[in-house]
Amino acid sequence: xxxxxDHTHEQIRQxxxxxxxxxxxxxxxxxxxxxxxxxxxxxxxxxLINVFGxxxxxxxxxxxxxxDQLAARLIExxxxxxxxxxxxxxxxxxxxxxxxxxxxxxxLLFEHRLPDEEAVPDWQQQRINRxxxxxxxxxxxxxxxxxxxxxxxxxxxxxxSVHGICALALDDKxxxxxxxxxxxxxxxxxxxxVSDWQQQ
Length: 200
Fold this sequence. Notes:
It is a single chain. With 200 residues, this protein is an all-alpha fold. The chain folds into two domains: 1-53, Orthogonal Bundle (Arc Repressor Mutant, subunit A); 63-198, Tetracycline Repressor, domain 2. Helix content is 71%, strand content 0%. The chain has nine helices and no strands. The protein has helices spanning 9-24, 34-41, 45-52, 55-76, 84-101, 103-111, 122-142, 148-170, 182-198. The mean pLDDT is 91. Keywords: DNA-binding, Transcription, Transcription regulation. Pfam families: TetR_C_33 (PF13305).
């Protein structure tokens, strides 16, 4: 077991998040615990609680890393000179790819819940808002007269729909024939929703 002064708090933080990330590359959070994680990096559970505040906050920090990775992927894979609808389709396809490639990280992002008495920290909410801003920006180009509230509603509707398709696809519960591709379902969703939304 490492001594308390072997690493700084920030180094312990990075060690824990890196080890948790390695675990989530191969299996679900259910196979990990605070005790196992602490043991894996050579510290006590109490040390991790001292660094993060709680196991929930540790998981929230891992989710922040996931949101950062997803945001970076969205920027990297955005096609050059794309139309707003192409941007939305790229967002949805990138989201699907990320969910497939990082299944357990992606699941943790939505399965983890803070205790009822704890609010989502500003630093996490800012990351969430940044992702929605990508969708809202594309929608604003399609319908410049829409209000901010209408853009927020449409962005969240699109995301929730894409997320639902991704979740069912990963769990193999779409109950669709093998010739119906998930990507085609997402493209159909974006095309028809956006077309209808623009006419409102």
